[in-house]
Amino acid sequence: MYITDTHTHLHFDQYAPDLQEVVQRARERGVVKILTLGTDYQSSLQSFEIAQQYDLVYAAVGIHPTDIFKSTQDDIPRLKLLAQKEPRIVAIGEVGFDLYWKEVPLDQQIPVFEQMLDTAKELNLPVVIHNRDAHREMRDFFESRQIKKIAGVMHSFSGTLDDAKFYLDRGLHISFTGVITFKNFRSQELVKAIPLDRLLLETDSPFLTPVPNRGKRNEPAFVEFVARRLAEIYDKSFLEITQTTFRNAKSLFGWDI
After folding, report:
1. Range of 168's domain?
2. Domain tally for the chain?
3. Residue 58 contacts by C-beta under 8 Å, 6 or more apart in sequence?
4. For position 187, which CATH number holds?
5. Percentage, residues of the chain above pLDDT 90
């Protein structure tokens, strides 16, 4: 049983007291690979340092759209240099658009996202894309730049089926969080429409804790509950979901056992 968690933020202060135990609990629950992502230069460094400490943890580096004001013009070249030389950095992320929070205007998010995509392309790395309340803007961006193919994942997917097809047509994967376990989740048919060979597992720890642990701090060990809910939605076995998503993550991030 190979379980993967393709989106965490293990550098957050919530994990400072017991990170070793968090990773060990994930290992005991069958998690074999964890991706932890930075959201600015400093947290990207922290994510990389965590990946160096634990054999099942890998890092992604990037500038989150809501963290742009914490960044300088030198940060993207420095992130590129770091990702270029460190094999435990397997992706560029978390990057993208966010129109839920109003602090950062879209016109300031666009050039940073574009530079991050250029970095990923130059380094031949996949991207982990954040999109909150900005699917129309994201689609406009892809179309205006004539982006036809891109390796990566739309993380914590929240768009429509038409949005999903748009991203799938460009080669992207789709991942879902513990939101799919909530009682008020009503998009099961959208989830089931995602081809299994494009599906990834994630927790987005420490956020979006799945049932039955909702209300607690999320952690990679809980990705099992996301996988079990996906197995119910797809009418597949838990083992098939975990094996398929492992193969997908292995192909995307270059992971191996």
Report:
1. 3-253
2. 1
3. 33, 34, 35, 36, 51, 88, 89, 90, 253, 255
4. 3.20.20.140
5. 97
